[in-house]
Amino acid sequence: MPIAIRDHTWEQTDTNVFINVPLKGVKTQKVDIFSTDEYLKVSFPPYLFECFLYAAVDDDSSSAKIGNGMVVFKLTKKSPEIWPELQTNEIENKEALKAKRATAITYAQERSERKEKERAEQKRQDDKYALKEAMKLDSEERERIADVKRSAITEANEDLENWKEEQKLQSEQQKIKEAEERRFREALRKRDKKKSPGKIATDKDTTNGIFEDEVKVQPSEIRQPGKIEVSFTHRDFPTAARESTAGLEEEWLKKQNEARRIRDTEDDNLTEEERNPVWLRDKGNEFFKTGNYQAAINAYSHAIKLQSKLPALYSNRAACHLKLGNCMKCLEDSSTALDLLTPPVPQNAAARVKAHTRRGTAFCQLELYVEGLQDYEAALKLQPDNPQLRDDADRIRNIIQGSEPT
Asked: Where in this chain does the entry annotate a coiled-coil region (predicted)?
């Protein structure tokens, strides 16, 4: 049974009460303090101090400090007045004290739950604000990159138009030159006919004015059959080279080849497989299928350290974070995967659908349904015949419109 502390001291003013409780040599780490508006308790086994206050105090603005072998309470009175005594006049009524003690515990529990909810709500609001700011910065960066691309395209188009004008001018000059040559040869033939009818002079004759030989007209020779050799350029994609996406496809191939290069690592403890990001990706896929999402994350993260340009590593790790409820990390990995899945070509359309879907799902779990719908609509543009995507997008749209509960 605990030993009650009786040798405490107290002082007061109109607005405050000061209580000093000796700790009897007990270490401060073992002191437990509990307080409400009408009840104080200091527990430091085997000692116990309980105080049922004469009147209510403001517990939120009150304080308790431990030091120099004492616990010092500074309590703020709710009503400015001088108390005739520290504790309530019901101190001898055990039933009343028991009821006050139970009320204090219930009040403390409710206050703790309320503050926990407030902290959780504040954290959610802070995360939401941070996410919006990050999205704003990301949007500004994307707009800047888009401006640079538009400027480069405009400059390229201007260069192309200038080249076309130059080619057109050269073609016109060539036509004028050929026309002048034809007129000159026609004039020479007319002059030669006047000098010697029935003879055709060679260019050598016209220069020295002497006709030596007549040009004999030979019968036309029969053309011999020939062959036309046709060669085909090797293509890694099924599309024709003349199509406008050929350049983008070649760029995508180059990026994938670069991404599959294995980086050298200085850790001699790793096996040859552990140095291969593709092997680590497959290992992570196996962990994911068995439901071991944390092990899959570790495998993908190690692969990213070896090769940070493979979009599948980020997209797969985003799926693991989504399974574990790590929505912010899922958003980051999905966005990184989409940045690496450029240029957008048919060969990476399925991967872009997965990244958009995972990021959209993470947005919806954070109750950012408008942003989530944008990702689902982007995925639908790539796979318009996917019924699951269409149903999910419709459901998100209904939540935004308020016709379906969240």
From this structure: none
